[in-house]
Write a structure and sequence with these properties.
Layout: H1 3-15, H2 20-33, E1 55-62, E2 65-72, H3 75-88, H4 93-98, H5 103-106, H6 115-134
Antiparallel strand pairs: 1-2
Helix pairs in contact: 1-3, 2-3, 3-6
């Protein structure tokens, strides 16, 4: 699937819920479904700066595509990073850089987070972009 197709799927998934409480529950479920992240990778160099919660992000190049793995010590934040890597993992760095990440506004995520979580979301996006830039 392309990034745009994945974004469309996320929009459809979020549209199933009318209330933000239900959307938060969905994010929590995404976080619970995130693949296990090795304790050995929970290092300062993988820690996303600017997040109130601790969020670790790792990336590896496989066949010219970035594959992300992540974890967080906060369940909603874990869901947010899970959502982001479900969209952007498995794509070439130039494809990731071509994305405007507007999905977070489209689904209302950016507007329905506390200011500290919204800052963390911005830091997650910037870190994904930074990793993509380094691998172009």
């Amino acid at each position: 699937m392309t990034i745009q197709e994945k974004e469309k799927q996320v929009i459809e998934d979020f549209s199933l819920y009318d209330e933000w409480l239900d959307k938060y529950e969905y994010l929590i479920e995404l976080g619970k479904a995130l693949d296990a992240y090795p304790e050995s990778k929970k290092t300062d160099d993988r820690l996303i700066k600017g997040c109130q919660s601790r969020v670790w992000l790792d990336a590896a190049m496989k066949d010219g595509k970035l594959v992300f793995s992540a974890d967080s010590d906060a369940i909603i934040t874990r869901g947010i990073i899970s959502l982001l890597i479900s969209i952007y993992s498995g794509h070439r760095p130039d494809e990731i850089l071509a994305s405007d990440f507007s999905i977070v506004r489209t689904i209302g995520l950016q507007d329905n987070l506390s200011p500290t979580r919204a800052n963390g979301l911005a830091s997650m996006i910037e870190t994904i972009r930074e990793i993509a830039r380094k691998n172009v």
